[in-house]
């Protein structure tokens, strides 16, 4: 169980978002994990990525790209 994320986890998240062409400035990644975690659009069109607290980080990270692709496929609110 991960309670807070470090630069190591953020760099792994950036590896995925960079690969999808998402600007790092368009991201909000809280340093605290939460349950449930989420990937969603927030005010200003930014994408918030909250890491799931109760999941293995590597396993959660494996599903992040699919979550982001689904979000990007939806029209912004």
Summarize the structure.
With 77 residues, the chain is of the alpha+beta class.
Description:
This protein is an alpha+beta fold and 77 residues long. The protein has one domain (7-73). 39% of the residues lie in helices and 13% in strands. It is built from 2 helices and 3 strands. The protein has helices at 7-19, 57-73; strands spanning 27-28, 38-41, 47-50. The chain has a 3-stranded mixed beta sheet with strand order 1-3-2, covered by helices on one side. It is globular. The relative contact order is 0.22. The mean pLDDT is 94.
What's the mean pLDDT score?
Answer: 94
Strand tally: 3
What summary fits the major beta sheet? Answer: 3 strands, mixed
Global Rg:
12 Å
What structural class is derived from the secondary structure elements? alpha+beta
Share in helix: 25-40%
Roughly how many Å apart are the termini? Answer: 32 Å
Shape: globular
How many individual domains?
1
Q: Numbering strands along the chain, what is their spatial order in the largest sheet?
A: 1-3-2
Estimated share of beta-strand residues: 5-15%
- H and E string: HEEEH
Contiguous uncertain segments of 5+ residues = none
Tally the helices: what do you get?
2
